[in-house]
Amino acid sequence: MVVAAGNRRWISHAVLVCIAIAQPLVYAVATETGAEQKARVQRIENAVLAPCCYTEAVSRHQSEVAVKMRIEIAKWVAEGRTDQEILDTYVRQYGSKVLVDPRTIPGWWTPWIPWLIAILGVVFGFWILNRWRNKPLPAGLPSSSPDTPELPDFDDEE
Q: Does 27-104 carry CATH code 1.10.8.640?
């Protein structure tokens, strides 16, 4: 197909105009705002455990390894890596136990259990003491009233 020189120029201008219009739109869709990147960094930091002890998320842990991982995560998010790529990198490096298992995150009620047990234990202790103090003496035992004569001391009979 033969295209005239004037038509080629018109087509090339149309393509350039389309690229010029589409480039900012593609760039706006492809880039994240600072707030979105910060939210992604937080989400990833909360999804990865510190490999020194595997008990606390990187976002809260204060070891050198956790600080290094926070820096790496922020750098990788800024470079444009996906969340899955970052998580896969840490799984390859430390194994799958580095990922936070959502089934192991304690519920809101977990910190209250020891306090509830302690309070119930104190209430039970007071109930037992009160019951013990108010228990009546058996009928066969002498009471300590002033009318009761004193019993002789057996050590005096020598």
A: yes
